[in-house]
TrEMBL record:
It comes from the Eukaryota. Pfam families: FAM194. InterPro entries: FAM194_C (IPR029281). This is ERIP6 protein. PANTHER family: GLUTAMATE RICH 6, SIMILAR TO CHROMOSOME 3 OPEN READING FRAME 20. Residues 1-176 form the FAM194 C-terminal domain.
Amino acid sequence: YPSGNLAIIVVREENRLICIVQEDKPNNAEIQAVFKSNGRNTCYYPNGAVWINMNIHGGQYLDQEGSRVRRWTWPNNIVSSGPNVPLSPIFISLNRHVGVKILGQDKITISFLAMGQQAKFNVGTKVQVSDVSLLPPPTRLGEDELLLLAFRLRILRLFDRLRGCLNFPSNEQRDKIKPPAYLITQTLKILQLCTTSDISDEVRSSVREIVNA
């Protein structure tokens, strides 16, 4: 960056390359994006929430509350659990100097612009899975992670209720307001994870109690 702080790092980890974009800070700089040559890429909002997440099958674009704005599948994806959804071009700015352009699985570009000069990094890759047996095992959440998700949802609900109290002092008005769609969606997702995850019945009951409170 013009400040002298490190902006983009490219490192090798065993047989793959990783490109990391950092925020413009001298110390404890947060990671704003990670691009891996195995097709797993993630971009983050300034507050740390996931913005864009991609893998060998496709990707999804999320808002800052965690709700999915859109999703897509790569054209060469043979194994897919759902309908093929084409990608619409995506252009985002991670900060005032770094932008990301996504046109395809192998057409992902990081643009760095500062002091009238520009550098571009092609971080796209062509990774294809044609055999179900080659798919990585599904990620399973542990008990602690599920409890944290449940408490996070509880806190978001309390904040939403607090906003409702400030905007609508009357209980009658407040009771008519439905919770935001993203809270309902996250509630359903956590309850589904409770069913599919390998956790004890005690933790499963605790998570459901926290979520349904």
